[in-house]
Amino acid sequence: MLTAKAYGVEKQGSNFKPMNIERREVLDNDVMIDILYCGICHSDVHQVRNDWGGSSYPIVPGHEIVGKITNVGRNAGEFKIGDYVGVGCMVDSCGKCQACSEGFEQQCEKETVWTYNSVDPHTKSMTLGGYSDKITVDKRFVIRIDSDDNLAGMAPILCAGVTTYSPLKKFGAGPGKHVAVAGLGGLGHMAVKLAKAMGSDVTVFTTSPEKANDAKKLGADKVLVYKNKDDIRKSGLSFNIIIDTIPADHDINALISTLKPNGAVVLVGLPERSTRYSLSPSILMDSNRSLAGSNIGGIPETQEVVDFCVKHNIRSEIELIKFPYLDEAYKRIMKNDVRYRFVIDNSSL
Ligand code: NAP
Ligand code: ZN
Predict the structure, then answer these.
(1) Is 211's C-beta closer than 6 angstroms to any atom of ligand 1?
(2) Any residues with CB less than 8 A from the CB of 282 and at least 6 apart, and which?
(3) I need a surface site. Which of 31, 141, 188, 280 has the fewest CB within 10 A?
(4) Which three-class secondary structure state does DSSP give residue 300?
(5) In this structure, which residue's CA is closest to atom 10 in ligand 1?
């Protein structure tokens, strides 16, 4: 095992502190990565706070990783020392079941191994994420980045990017399609950029009047600043697809009521475990509307969105921070005070 430096949380309710952690030595199929940047996803905040249950401590979060390869196993294939690569939310899966063979490793029938808070099948210890200086990852879960331009802005594509790209593609975003994005945060601002680059007409639903100008700059055609569900219902707007990134309880019927016939609301925001949404069946049935959910994206789709972003010169809007700013950053995320993603400069470790 190798010792790595990291920041993590020892137990629920504690602050971040520096810690030494272990990474496995490269196995035949592995690459070792020096982490350059790591985004802070709201899912990191949920898991550090144990909002979803099942968090295991000590926890080292971080699943929006960009780095440079420093070592490769003998079967690491296309990957070479010095390559820029990314790692998202997963680091392993069985690789054999139907979901894995179709490129949906996040639905592995045996077990998806998440980048943190999972059991590493090789070492049987808990996986630890990207708030660290290095990580060893199986090559199947390593994403090529064919650009060295704004790598810090590339990091959030590994989660926020693929999580919004996947449902946009699945539900047919593109020319002639009206897409709404509810919540202009880390996921939401990527959804706006991606939906626009796919050729859709894009509307943002935001609770923050001060974000209206930004939404337009990010590419939105329309912005609805709303206070409550009535503002949404009365807006007169209608959509083919709504990407709902809101990380807290809210009225989903109001969003569904703005769907065109056959349209879909896709939930990607995941509030704390006790949250229950109420649903009016007639709102769905009357116009053959759908309510769907979407969990990140598989590895082929993660590679696809990274390539799409390189091709269309799309990056996340970020605030670059250094260690040990994490507790402050988490407080600011909870206060909705980030434009639009914190990314850690891991060289500050
Ligand atoms: P974020 O950066 O904090 O953005 C969330 C946005 O939602 C905020 O900027 C705010 O936008 C809006 N919002 C926040 N609280 C709200 C409330 N009480 N009512 C209405 N709107 C509210 O978070 P994120 O990183 O984008 O993540 C969003 C959610 O997606 C989290 O729950 C996260 O765990 C989840 N997630 C899911 C997946 C997946 O695979 N499905 C992947 C990654 C993250 P406005 O100021 O514009 O209103
Ligand atoms: Zn995430």
Answers:
(1) yes
(2) none
(3) 280
(4) helix
(5) 183
